[in-house]
Structures are given as structure tokens and as C-alpha cells.
Amino acid sequence: xxxxxxxxxxxxxxxxxxxxxxxxxxxxxxxxxxxxxxxxxxxxxxxxxxxxxxxxxxxxxxxxxxxxxxxxxxxxxxxxxxxxxxxxxxxxxxxxxxxxxxxxxxxxxxxxxxxxxxxxxxxxxxxxxxxxxxxxxxxxxxxxxxxxxxxxxxxxxxxxxxxxxxxxxxxxxxxxxxxxxxxxxxx
Length: 187
Description:
Layout: H1 42-74, E1 76-80, H2 86-89, E2 98-107, E3 110-119, H3 123-134, E4 139-142, E5 146-154, E6 157-165, E7 172-181
Antiparallel strand pairs: 1-2, 2-3, 3-7, 4-5, 5-6, 6-7
């Protein structure tokens, strides 16, 4: 040490064991914090759950698409304006009704023929005709626009007749759906 003033302790104090510009070592070791725990974070868990739902959605869409494909390949669909008969529809046709369109559909072991007719007669007159034609075994359902008759003829055959009033032109619309077991084809 040099004899420069300010570098020496004041008179009567003992000599310092360390240089005056340094501090004494700490009385305890420095604190070392442990690293954060490694484990699943909330974000990881959320991402895993989202990935599972997306995967299930893709699988579900594939199953639905395959089902639609199988139904489309197994069925037949055609529309026509060719006149249909009472025998084709399984119920009497309303006298004087004009046929608009018919549709034939074969799917899942069922042949379905749907025909649409129109008449200028009142809805109530048409309803009375089909109540009489289908008989007391037909189930009836009424809504604000019209009436529906459902008749199960047994052996997989059924007839549904829906009668509704058309707002434009005052016409009454008749829709007849006749479902039967599909005809088997020999191959």
C-alpha cells in the first residue's frame, strides 16, 4: 500500500486485510435457482385435444362420405313426366287432377315412386276423396298448409298422400309417395 492519504485507515484503526477497493466475500454461497420443471404445459394439452377432435372429424367425414357413396352406387334415381296409374301409386288418382312430375328412386332395398298432381278443386274436397279412398286404417296428420294421410299396407308397402293448397292460383297440390320392396334382379 502506498502512503497516499485516503488509502490508509484513519489513525487508531487496524490495517485492512483486503485492498480498500474490494468488498469482502459474501458470508453464504450465491443462490442458484433450479431450472423450471419440465412437464406438459396447458398449451400442449390444448393442442393435443384440438388435434384429437380434428382427427375424429376427419374420420367421421370419411365415414359419412363413404356411406353416401355406397347409397349412391346402390340406388337409382329418375324423374319423368310420363303418366302414372293408380296401380303404380297404390291408391286411386283424384279425378281430373293434372300430373306435373313423377320421380322414381331405388335405395336400400326400397322402390319409391313419388308423383305430384294439381287440381282446381278445393283442398277440402280432395281431402274428403282421399279419406274415403284410403279408408279408416290411414293415419292422418294436419298442419297449417294441408293434410297428410299415411297407410301401411303391410309386407313393406306404404302409401303417403299429402294435400296442400297452393297460394298462387288457388290450386290444390296432391303429392303421392308409394314405397314397395325393391324388385330383385337375377344376374
